[in-house]
């Protein structure tokens, strides 16, 4: 059974998420702040964590950073009442998989959880692509420039892999959001732009391969 950890200092929020998650067939643990979340994550293996950002004792960003030290690949969805771009960028830098602004639809949250779990459970087809000194290992989810492994967030990996697999093809924003995020995206399209910005920064000189198609979307170029 899929086991998720719900972390929020508001009991009503935890109860609401638990109600919908258990209806979907998930086992649910709760934590009321970041410290308790870190403690529970040290003792249990969770398939996914839903975590609020603004909490007493230890905020969601700090808790996520601590959990990532021992559970590098556990998917994390951050909850926030702020919705500022800085918070999203900071969260994505920490490797979170998604970002939900309060108030949110619990049904939409469940859709996001299902999409992330589906993605993490699917094994990539064994494939390795080299572009000069850039190596993209789909199976191992490893991206290197020369011998240096790049520290990408889970969503950056997904976005890069999708772009590269469809290199030379013009991809609309809608298509990227639907196929990389895994559901009908109802949020701000700037989420895609934020990830592209972070991905380009990490790719350094290879960022030139990601071309912006004004009014359309993006394309990963074929040429070397």
From TrEMBL:
What is the name listed in the Swiss-Prot or TrEMBL entry for this protein?
DNA-binding response regulator
Give any Pfam family that matches.
Answer: Response_reg
Q: Gene3D superfamilies given for it?
A: 3.40.50.2300, 6.10.250.690, Winged helix-like DNA-binding domain superfamily/Winged helix DNA-binding domain (1.10.10.10)
- Indicate the segments forming the OmpR/PhoB-type domain, all copies: 126-222
Q: Does the keyword DNA-binding apply?
A: yes
One of its GO biological process terms is: regulation of DNA-templated transcription
Q: Which PANTHER family match?
A: DNA-BINDING DUAL MASTER TRANSCRIPTIONAL REGULATOR RPAA, REGULATOR OF RPOS
Query: Which residues are annotated with the PTM 4-aspartylphosphate?
Result: 52
Q: Sorted alphabetically, which keywords does the UniProt record give? A: DNA-binding, Phosphoprotein, Transcription, Transcription regulation, Two-component regulatory system
One GO MF term: phosphorelay response regulator activity
Q: Which residues bind DNA?
A: 126-222
Q: State whether keyword Transcription applies.
A: yes
